[in-house]
């Protein structure tokens, strides 16, 4: 802790924040100089104004990875603090530790996992279904910039030493201003609100794209499963995120304007838990389903076979999505909702295991009788199956309501949800990045480094989290920064810490892989994996205007069977007009105004907020009366 | 065709048990036994009350059923990736397409349903029995005169226990073999009362009194913890629990 005297006010600054400032002040100018030297400003300016799905997707991936590194560093800080009993690592005890795990959870879910998945959807889905861009390219750019504004706002909190400190779940009344007065949880509210808006708009965009812009002949039942997963996920987002929006608004009113939705005579802190988990549980499937889709495509490609039980796969996606809305109270078995609610939600939770099990067996039987090629994406898929199954079985154990009262809020639960989220989402993202990297950059990631990445990450993962089941059963609650010598927890925690650093090393290999591939990677052909779906018919990297000639799809995996019989896919002579790409700075501008407006609201600078609100309204009006498609309409219908 | 396939499937499963998978199997079994044998050191598996005992049973029972699931999946995965891996010889082959198999698909839908149904029975029974209720509901606990009542107040970051004769303490002292009703109340945010050896946790919610019933079955000393994140020193919000004989408890109550 350091103290400054500034304008007669005493300013406290913890040394980790100072370190971050120093680092930023050193690195920032260095990066600016480097950009200038490399003459990269025009590229940046182009990307800032682009609406192209691949470029927007690439930005999603880049910033998602950046935030992933930040949140991963938080994880390593936590594991270092917990390595031995009664540890005093740097400043990370008490409130500081609480800030670290709150940031870790929130960042990983909303600013790493979500944008990385959405990035992959952006890049792959239009190419997989033969669309020439997302249905609403402008809206897509708006979504991205809203995510980035939310992410920047959230990270700004750390630099101002006011990180959120009520956990990623922000349970009331702890998260109300009665108990956490600093601006931290206001940052949480506004950062999630802004990025959540972006996510909701993406869902709309994906649904319309998939329903309206498929290539001729590509009926819904001929779509690759990643496209299907994206469609179902988008519907989940469309239903679940508005609930979060409402919950955040209520919390905002409680914090800023002294309402009492979550406290006092009329309100109840338990309302927050209901709202949060009605959003939060579907969110788990919003993270998992796209990964399921990615793995389905990868396993099928690298087994040289169609997906086994395609219809069963689609139906179980739908069922998981549907059941996902009926299980939220299994996060609340210890609240005291009563025996009726506890058993009801125990049973519905168990039911989800059935469609999930169907998917697992279908993946296994896709490999059966095939020719399994151990590429890096496939290795991630093979690691995914046992990992996710272990997360699934502990999920069933947790659904046993009476036993959950022992598991709840211990490291057993921490182990469980890392098994499911890392097992599916993060491994899925890694697999997807290796798999579609040729479409993103035109190069193929190095296999040897990829093996190091996968090996270290997966081994480290199991070392960290398998042992945590036992740590939890032995009485270690989550979100605690210390434990005592006599508690018989040292060995477990130390092993977890070692494993965490192995995962960190794995991620470094990944970063190194991206760097060397960028410098001197091998160029990829259009179809480097002997692919099955339409994205492998276009060049690598995917061109700005793919499918100049729109292919006609005559069956599932049409590209594969065309290759097998040595013919080319037929081409539609009179295709639907493509969505129109524009270069515009408006999306970035709107989002940054929203960011400044949020800062105004957080610090009660009402005038600033009002001015920003006015500007925002003007931008909306400007956009409302401008339609880049008008010239096209006029060309098509000259009489009117 | 199906029969032949099933034969091969079962054959392959058995052969896994016989050779390649033997080491892996042994490891998993070893782990399983370690968990059970080591149970006396694992706090949640070292029950000192009927409730904790029931919960430990559910933990073992669900783990046993889930072990079956894991073994099936792991052996199939190992088998398929091993048997069907790409070699120099089959590199250019195009495998025969088998895209569905009604009987297999029905069996891996129905067998999990049956396993879950088996698990659901004790789950529902025990959950119904031990789910606590807020006061105001008609509860047997309130009418149970022979029970000892202790008022528990959670406040950031400590616990206060008030006994029937008005004695207050920072530690929880309870007589063995007597029915205890804890009246859980919070003075500020949500906390959670947890002594793993006595049973699962119960959230303590402001503005509400929740009754937590437990009958300690054996004497002992245990660490109790707050298990719902409550702010700065959540990690330090602990208390000692002492289960003592009844006369010792009486003496302790009268002790100033």
Describe the structure.
The complex is a heterodimer of chains A (640) and B (256). Chain A has 640 residues and is mostly helical. Chain A has 19 helices and 4 strands. Chain A has helices at 15-37, 41-49, 53-82, 94-129, 137-159, 184-212, 225-257, 269-301, 310-323, 339-367, 376-399, 401-407, 411-441, 447-473, 490-520, 558-564, 586-602, 606-624, 630-636; strands spanning 2-6, 9-13, 443-444, 522-523. The longest helix of chain A has 36 residues, at 94-129. Chain B has 2 domains: 44-79 and 105-131, no CATH class; 134-254, Immunoglobulin-like. Chain B contains 6 helices and 11 strands. Chain B has a 6-stranded mixed beta sheet, with no helix packed on it. The chains are: A mainly alpha (640), B alpha+beta (256). The interface between A and B is large, with 87 and 87 residues. Chain A: Belongs to the heme-copper respiratory oxidase family.
CATH topology of the largest domain in chain B: Immunoglobulin-like
The fraction of residues assigned to DSSP E strands of chain B is 15-25%
Most extensive chain interface and residues per partner: A-B, 87 and 87 residues
What is the annotated CATH architecture of the largest domain in chain A?
Up-down Bundle
Total strand segments of chain B: 11
**Largest sheet composition of chain A:** 2 strands, antiparallel
């Amino acid at each position: 802790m350091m103290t400054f005297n500034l304008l007669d006010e005493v300013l406290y600054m913890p040394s980790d924040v100072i370190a971050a400032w120093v680092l930023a002040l050193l690195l920032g100018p260095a990066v600016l100089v480097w950009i200038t030297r490399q003459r990269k400003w025009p590229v940046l300016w182009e990307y800032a104004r682009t609406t192209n799905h691949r470029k927007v997707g690439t930005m999603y991936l880049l910033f998602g990875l950046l935030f992933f590194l930040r949140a991963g560093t938080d994880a390593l800080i936590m594991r270092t603090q917990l390595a031995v009993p009664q540890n005093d690592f740097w400043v990370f005890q008490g409130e500081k530790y609480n800030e670290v795990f709150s940031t870790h959870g929130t960042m990983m879910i909303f600013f790493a996992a979500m944008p990385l998945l959405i990035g992959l959807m952006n890049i792959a889905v239009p190419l997989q279904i033969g669309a020439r861009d997302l249905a609403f390219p402008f809206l897509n750019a708006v979504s991205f910039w809203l995510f980035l504004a939310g992410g920047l706002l959230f990270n700004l909190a750390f630099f101002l030493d006011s990180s959120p400190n009520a956990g990623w779940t922000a349970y009331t009344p702890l998260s109300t201003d009665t108990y956490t007065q600093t601006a931290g949880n206001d940052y949480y509210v506004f950062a999630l609100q802004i990025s959540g808006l972006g996510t909701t708009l993406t869902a709309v965009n994906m649904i319309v794209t998939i329903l309206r812009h498929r290539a001729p002949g590509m009926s819904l039942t001929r779509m690759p499963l990643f496209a299907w997963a994206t469609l179902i996920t988008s519907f989940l987002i469309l239903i679940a995120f508005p609930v979060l929006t409402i919950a955040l608004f209520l919390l905002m009113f409680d914090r800023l304007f002294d309402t009492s939705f979550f406290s006092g005579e009329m309100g109840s802190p338990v309302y927050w838990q209901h709202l949060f988990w009605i959003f939060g549980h579907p969110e788990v499937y919003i993270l998992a389903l796209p990964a399921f889709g990615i793995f389905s495509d990868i396993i099928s490609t690298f087994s040289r076979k169609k997906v086994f039980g395609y219809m069963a796969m689609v139906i179980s996606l739908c069922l998981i999505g549907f059941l996902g809305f009926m299980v939220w109270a299994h996060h609340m078995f210890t609240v005291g909702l009563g025996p009726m609610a506890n058993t009801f939600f125990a049973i519905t939770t168990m039911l989800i295991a059935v469609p999930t099990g169907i998917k697992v067996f279908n993946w296994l039987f896709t490999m059966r009788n095939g020719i399994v090629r151990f590429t890096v994406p496939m290795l991630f898929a093979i690691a995914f199956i046992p990992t996710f199954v272990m997360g699934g079985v502990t999920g069933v154990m947790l659904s046993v309501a009476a036993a959950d009262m022992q598991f709840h809020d211990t490291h057993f639960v921490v182990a469980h949800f890392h098994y499911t989220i890392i097992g599916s989402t993060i491994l899925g993202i890694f697999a997807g990045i290796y798999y579609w990297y040729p479409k993103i950059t035109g190069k193929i990631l190095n296999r040897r480094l990829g093996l190091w990445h996968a090996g270290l990450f997966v081994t480290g993962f199991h070392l960290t989290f398998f042992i945590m089941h036992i740590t939890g059963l032995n009485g270690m609650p989550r979100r605690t920064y210390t434990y005592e010598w006599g508690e018989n927890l040292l060995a477990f925690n130390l092993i977890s810490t070692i494993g965490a650093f192995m995962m960190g090393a794995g991620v470094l290999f990944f970063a190194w892989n991206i760097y060397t591939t960028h410098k001197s990677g091998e160029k990829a052909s259009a179809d480097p994996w002997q692919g099955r779906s339409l994205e492998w018919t276009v060049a690598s990297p995917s061109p700005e205007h793919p499918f100049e000639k729109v292919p006609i799809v005559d069956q599932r995996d049409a590209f594969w069977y065309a290759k097998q019989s040595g013919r080319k896919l037929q081409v539609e002579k009179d295709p639907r007009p493509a969505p129109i790409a524009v270069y515009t700075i408006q999306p970035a501008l709107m989002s940054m105004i929203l960011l400044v407006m949020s800062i105004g609201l957080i610090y009660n600078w009402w005038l600033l907020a009002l001015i920003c609100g006015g500007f925002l309204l003007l931008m909306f009006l400007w956009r409302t009366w401008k339609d880049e498609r008008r010239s096209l309409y006029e060309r098509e219908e000259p009489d009117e | 065709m199906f029969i032949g396939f099933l034969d091969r499937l079962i054959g392959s499963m058995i052969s896994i048990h016989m050779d390649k998978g033997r080491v892996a199997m042994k490891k998993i079994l070893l782990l399983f036994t370690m968990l059970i044998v080591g149970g006396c050191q694992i706090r949640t598996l070292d029950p000192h009350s009927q409730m904790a005992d029931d919960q430990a049973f559910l933990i073992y029972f669900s783990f046993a059923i889930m072990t079956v699931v894991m073994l099936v999946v792991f052996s199939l995965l190992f088998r398929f990736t091993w048997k069907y891996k790409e070699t120099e010889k089959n590199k250019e082959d195009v495998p025969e397409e088998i895209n569905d198999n009604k009987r297999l698909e029905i069996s891996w839908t129905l067998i999990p349903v049956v396993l879950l149904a088996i698990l659901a029975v004790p789950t529902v029974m025990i959950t119904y029995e031990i789910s606590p209720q807020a006061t105001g509901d008609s509860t047997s606990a309130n009418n149970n005169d022979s029970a000892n009542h202790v008022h528990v107040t959670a406040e950031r970051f400590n616990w206060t226990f008030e006994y029937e004769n008005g004695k207050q303490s920072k530690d929880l002292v309870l007589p063995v073999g007597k029915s205890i009703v804890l009246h859980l109340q919070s003075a500020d945010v949500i906390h959670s009362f947890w002594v793993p050896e006595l049973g699962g946790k119960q959230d303590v919610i402001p503005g509400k009194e929740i009754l937590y019933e437990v009958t300690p079955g054996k004497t002992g000393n245990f660490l109790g913890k707050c298990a719902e994140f409550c702010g700065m020193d959540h990690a330090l919000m602990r208390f000692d629990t002492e289960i003592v004989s009844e006369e010792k408890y009486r003496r302790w109550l009268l002790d100033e």
